[in-house]
Amino acid sequence: MKKKQSKKTQFKKRKNYSEKTAFGNLEKESNTLTSPKISSNGIPKYVADRMARRIFFTAGIPTLLGMSVFVVSYIIVTRNIAEIPPSSTIAISALFFLLGLAGLSFGILSASWDKEPGSFFGIENIPMNIQRAKAAFKPATQNLEDKS
């Protein structure tokens, strides 16, 4: 009958690496596994920046106003300036949030995809950007059929 080995001798000793060595090896391995970048048909950076600016103004400001309605209403009611029903506070806030939602859509759809910024409001870009959005949701086979 064999004797049981003690717990100390059952496991092999592991090498202790310093943090620098361990992470250095990890970076070396990850660099060898990465493949070259494949070009994407995504949104160019200058267009994304333009969209972000438009979204900030058309959606951010109404959303901040929608949140500030609660604060202003609270201050008015607690200082006994006026009696505001809670339903009107919620309704006004909801209108600002809906305006922000519409502004979000407008900010995305009105951005020009040209290198030049385009007009201030960008209304002329909306139909073209709606067509781009519809084409992005079509299956890949339909996109191929449309091009040929």
Characterize the structure shown:
- The protein has helices at 7-10, 19-33, 45-78, 86-109, 126-137, 140-147.
- It is mostly helical.
- The protein has a domain at 46-136.
- Helix 3 packs antiparallel against helix 4.
- The longest helix has 34 residues, at 45-78.
- It is flat, with a radius of gyration of 29 Å.
- The model has no long low-confidence stretch (mean pLDDT 79).
The number of distinct helices, counting runs of at least 4 residues, comes to: 6
Assess the beta-strand content as a share of residues.
under 5%
Largest sheet: none
Residues in helix, %: 55-70%
Count of distinct strands = 0
Radius of gyration from CA coordinates: 29 Å
Features of this protein?
flat; 0% strand; mainly alpha; 148 residues
Quick recap of the structure?
With 148 residues, the chain is mainly alpha-helical. The chain is built from six helices and no strands.
Topology diagram in text:
Layout: H1 7-10, H2 19-33, H3 45-78, H4 86-109, H5 126-137, H6 140-147
